[in-house]
Amino acid sequence: EAGVAQSPRYKIIEKRQSVAFWCNPISGHATLYWYQQILGQGPKLLIQFQNNGVVDDSQLPKDRFSAERLKGVDSTLKIQPAKLEDSAVYLCASSQGDQPQHFGDGTRLSIL
Amino acid sequence: SQQGEEDPQALSIQEGENATMNCSYKTSINNLQWYRQNSGRGLVHLILIRSNEREKHSGRLRVTLDTSKKSSSLLITASRAADTASYFCATDLNDYKLSFGAGTTVTVRA
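YS: structure for the whole thing
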């Protein structure tokens, strides 16, 4: 079974620029999650999708972050404009039903 | 805010020794999960224990759950160099959303 795919693996941008991350979940997984993991901390949930609908985006900074999951498969997370405090690893995870979440290796974002 | 808190923050042991880390949480849960994260990689699910369970085993892993104390522990027996990683507990409040602690960094010395 192929795992959760994320790209790019690394991204360096200047503050106020925009950036986008892509995630391809495990085939058949209806639920998709985006997490932000700041260095030295555990992952923090940003948004949860069920198929192509948003279940929870209460912790997504909506003034600068947006996410979509067209056709209920791939998903993109965008930051515009980026701030220095957005430097983190952005992890995507997927799951099916009450099964454990499977994580991708993340995108490491550095803001200069 | 993060629901779980792991203790200790860091742990260094000799290969072959056991490693124990603890997790405390604040509110009632549906289940508690432990994940491992190797440097530069994503999280890997290790074990899930439901709120009506007290102990669970998987290979060299043993997890306990005490809902009266809102705490859990993860024991890794006969540690190996490959066990060097960060370990996170995560609580599920019955909606498939996980709240992670800050993790315990385990270093196994050869």
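YS: worth flagging: The interface with chain B takes residues 4, 31, 33, 40-45, 48, 56, 91, 93, 95, 98, 100-106, 108 of chain A (CB under 8 Å).
IM: good catch. Also The radius of gyration of chain A is 13 Å.
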